[in-house]
User: Which sequence fits this backbone?
């Protein structure tokens, strides 16, 4: 599994929010600044997670469009084969009729 820059940023933001929470328990930052910073870190990490989720959704949608196109191509090929078989059947029937006419 490859880690991208977004993955690393998400983990850094989450670890930073945990670090600030631990620092708050020790008593160093003020409550308002700590809550604001933690809120910003968590909101930005959620934003990055949602962006990554929808990026996967776009890639999946593109793959489904490609598969739909391939299925359409297969359907056309089968249709052409069926048409060719019908034409071949008609020609064979004509040949059979000609052979019967000449043998009688």
Assistant:
């Amino acid at each position: 599994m490859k880690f991208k820059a977004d993955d690393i940023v998400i983990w850094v933001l989450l670890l930073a929010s945990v670090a600030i929470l631990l620092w708050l328990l020790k008593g160093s930052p003020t409550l308002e600044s700590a809550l604001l910073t933690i809120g910003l870190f968590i909101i930005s990490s959620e934003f990055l997670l949602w962006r990554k989720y929808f990026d996967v959704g776009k890639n999946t949608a593109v793959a489904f469009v490609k598969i739909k196109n391939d299925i359409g191509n297969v359907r056309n090929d089968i249709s052409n084969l069926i048409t060719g078989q019908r034409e071949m059947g008609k020609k064979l029937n004509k040949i059979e009729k000609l052979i019967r006419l000449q043998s009688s």
In short: The mean pLDDT is 82. The CA atoms of residues 73 and 79 lie 10 Å apart.
